[in-house]
Amino acid sequence: MAFRKCRSWKTYMTMMHWSLRRQSSWVQLAGHQGSLQLSDGGEVLKLYSEVEANCLDCLMRDPLRPFVPQYHGLVTKGELCYIRLEDLLSGLRKPVIMDCKMGVRTYQEEELVKARTNATLRSDMYQKMVKIDPSAPSAEEHEQGGVTKSRYLQWKDTTSSTATLGFRIEGIMTEDGSVQRDFRKIMTLAQVTEALLFFTRRQREILEAYHSRLLALSDALKNSLFFRTHEVIGSSLLFVHDHSSRANVWMIDFAKTTPVSDASRLRHNVPWAEGSREDGYLIGLTSLITSLSQAISVASWQQEHSCREDNSVV
């Protein structure tokens, strides 16, 4: 699979700040434009969301704390309030970054109910649907030139590995700052494995570091009260490494992560049925761990094969 390069700043994944003097950079995804800043003190400031702030506050007292950016409270700048977060890229030189949106759906159940209540035909969503797949709208929708938001929300997740694997790759930024975002066609574990090999340049040490980190995250999730009692929607895993082979994975973006009722405990590893509030987060994590294992095997074989060829030449 060939991955399309895009150097435009107005891409799905946007490099918002690059400081060679501080050897620090940070990434902002589309949909959050203007909501992130880098403070003078080296923290990332994210536009305040009560939901996200509450999540981060809880996570600071949870077994998942080592897997999320450190939360330093709130700060007001002018008329706006910001969440103060650890800069996850601090100290890295020319970091390589991948964002994976986790779960089998990217919309909240409340969004779906609200969209059905206001079943207005949306021409903008129809155009987006046609751009991705001209055959997706029904004959009636083509005639009307519009689709409802509920229809669009449910359809959109079926066009990527969100529905099939429990996560999707949102974008990759390489060390030169260029962005790859053409990952929507990835639907199988084999294609994910190929993308991971591309992302890591087939470096076994980095792949193994990511694999170990995700296994540790899996253990932490099992012991997390926060995870058992929250519907995790729209959250990402941020993969980061640099030329020194330092590699880490972080849970980020909790603006759509909400608590369930006191009587509920989510499993996170079963398909979603409306009303269950299951998000399939662990389905995505299992898919990533499996693909990383496959990528490690490929990289190891290629490394050993290369060594044998070098020895034969000598």
TrEMBL record:
User: Which GO molecular function, any one, fits this protein according to its record?
Assistant: inositol-1,4,5-trisphosphate 3-kinase activity
Its Gene Ontology cellular component terms are: cytoplasm; nucleus
Q: Which Pfam families match?
A: IPK (PF03770)
UniProt keyword Kinase, yes or no: yes
Q: Which reaction does it catalyse?
A: 1D-myo-inositol 1,4,5-trisphosphate + ATP = 1D-myo-inositol 1,3,4,5-tetrakisphosphate + ADP + H(+)
Q: What biological-process GO terms show up in the record?
A: inositol phosphate biosynthetic process; phosphatidylinositol phosphate biosynthetic process
Protein's UniProt keywords contain RNA-binding: no
- Enzyme class label: transferase
Q: Which UniProt keywords apply?
A: ATP-binding, Kinase, Nucleotide-binding, Transferase
EC nos: 2.7.-.-
Q: Describe the family membership recorded for this protein in Swiss-Prot or TrEMBL.
A: Belongs to the inositol phosphokinase (IPK) family.
Protein name according to UniProt: Kinase
Which organism is the protein's source? Gasterosteus aculeatus aculeatus (three-spined stickleback)
